[in-house]
Amino acid sequence: MSLAFREAFLAFRRWPALSMLSVTTIAFALFVASLYGLVALNLRRALQNIEERVEIVMYITRGTPVEVITLALDDIEAFPEVARAAYITADEALQRAQRELVEFQGIFSEFDTNPLPASIEVRLLPGFRTSEKVGAVAERLGSFNFVDDVQYGDDWLAKLDRLRNIGAVVGLMIGGAFALASIIIIGTTIRMAVLQRSREIAIMRLVGATDSFIRRPFLVEGCIKGALGGLAALGLCYAAYAAVHRLLFQAEFFSTQQMILVVAIGTGLGFLASATSVAKHLRQI
Amino acid sequence: MIKFVRVYKAFPSGSLALRDLSFHVAKGEFLFLTGHSGAGKSTVLRLIYAEHLPTQGEVRISGFNTAKLNRREVSQLRRRLGIVFQDFRLLEDRTAEDNVAFALEVTGAKRSVIAPKVMRVLAQVGLTAKAHQYSNELSGGEQQRVAIARALVNDPFVLLADEPTGNLDERATRGVFRLLRDINANGTAVLMATHDLDLVRHANYRTMELQDGALVFDSKVDQQAMKKGTA
Fold it and tell me: How many angstroms away from the CA of A215 is the closest CA of chain B?
């Protein structure tokens, strides 16, 4: 195996321009795909932030004893879909309304008694925030006999669902197109490198090299080029992210695992492109 | 050792490169293969190192039918053959030493074995002093010597030389031919394709002439016939 590594590194030394061209091409192909991944990541995060606001409000019938509500809170928090449930007394509801709805300040002061009901605000866990699932939980919450009304903004949730579905389909299509373009570009780049060395491969075969012996340095070379391309793509992505983060809006960069994934994809694509190119070439000689 | 039995070779275009060719090369023999360009000399060599397969008939090398070898076995066969070409086919960006070592590396030989063996064959071809020079810095004759050293390093039982002096001046030609004779004197069979009839005439070796893919003359067969006639 050390010979394969030596031959692979020798190829970088012998054809620095071609090797650099390969790495640069792979880097840009992966950069475009990764940049799209970064955009998708930030869009998903934005969507998650919106999703976190999904809330079911149970309005409580006046005169319900606090003990009943406390017991119900325990039951509600035991629901597998529920992240937390908070009891808001009628007084707290009024204070919040006065604080948040400043333009109605005058109206609130005219009331002799508090017109707002007590409520329980229920937040759901991620994965249970779709229109269908929220509706199902709301229905179950409505079955408590102290509940006057249950609201969860079903119209707004349906719109969020549509947005999420459109995002997933468009993301899959554009992401797939970028990934396919990257695979084709990387495959062509590696094929050029293999063709450039076709004379050397023919000589190897003539002196008795087996196919696996010929293949090994190319596979190592493909992996190195892919990994370097992946690292360079990450660098370019970081530069783009830093510019957006500083000049436009707060954005998020890849996690360590995602960065490792980008380099691993580059390495894997380099390996696959080399394997197919060399195999194709060997079949012809 | 090398046996052709009623071999025909046709190419996809339909042209017939060899027709009904039968001959046998014995261990340690020196054989000239002559004929005009396109007579089929190189095709004979390609059939021996299994780059081509016969369309009809059998090519047997050390008892193995080349048509039945898989790719790995073809590689194994080539390690036991030494092949030299008119255009040298050296790796230009490597030194003479590296080019020769390469033929050993593909066999998986250890480094400790490679270095002394390489120096031994380079000494045999008279290139010890130029071991560290890149092949494209060497003269044509020297490049062909490196190619011969590469062909010899795996101790082949036969050296196949396809117009090895075709690109060389007279002096270099003499030097390379002397080297091939020495190699043959040490027991390695040599099969040399050439159209240099001067070279053939001055050496007293078996000669086979091809014409349009057919064998029209074999000095060995003719001598045997002559002996039978005089007996």
Answer: 12
